[in-house]
Design brief:
The protein is mainly alpha-helical and about 110 residues long. About 50% of the residues lie in helices and about 10% in strands. The protein has helices spanning about 1-10, 20-35, 45-60, 90-95, 100, and strands at about 70-75, 80. The chain has a two-stranded antiparallel ribbon.
């Protein structure tokens, strides 16, 4: 499935870096498999995988989350950054596809 997602991404985003697209395609496949608790993704989820990979590219990848300034102090310059929860960004992305993915989701014991 990763190869198909990558091929479609290359069609849609010719100007993007190939390594970044390959990573996003692989990561989107991993995320969907983990969410659905399945080893093989059905062809029906190809469009979802491509869209999810595109969103990962747009966000810079969940692994490279941008830190937001929590507070800034001007006198003697002090900046405090907000700490993000690991994986919170990926959870938000997957929530966008809950309807499509829940059809294929299996129970995990």
């Amino acid at each position: 499935m990763q190869e198909k997602i990558l091929a479609k991404l290359q069609e849609l985003r010719a100007e993007e870096d190939l390594a970044a697209m390959d990573f996003a395609a692989g990561r989107s496949e991993e995320m969907m498999k983990a969410y659905c608790n399945i080893d093989m993704l059905p062809e029906a989820l190809l469009g979802t995988g491509v869209t999810l990979a595109g969103m990962l590219l747009d966000s810079g990848g969940a692994a490279t989350s941008s830190q937001k300034a929590k507070s800034i102090k001007e006198g003697d310059v002090s900046i405090t950054f907000q700490e993000d929860d690991c994986g919170a960004e990926e959870e938000k992305l997957l929530a966008c596809f809950k309807v499509e993915l829940d059809r294929w989701r299996r129970m995990d014991w």
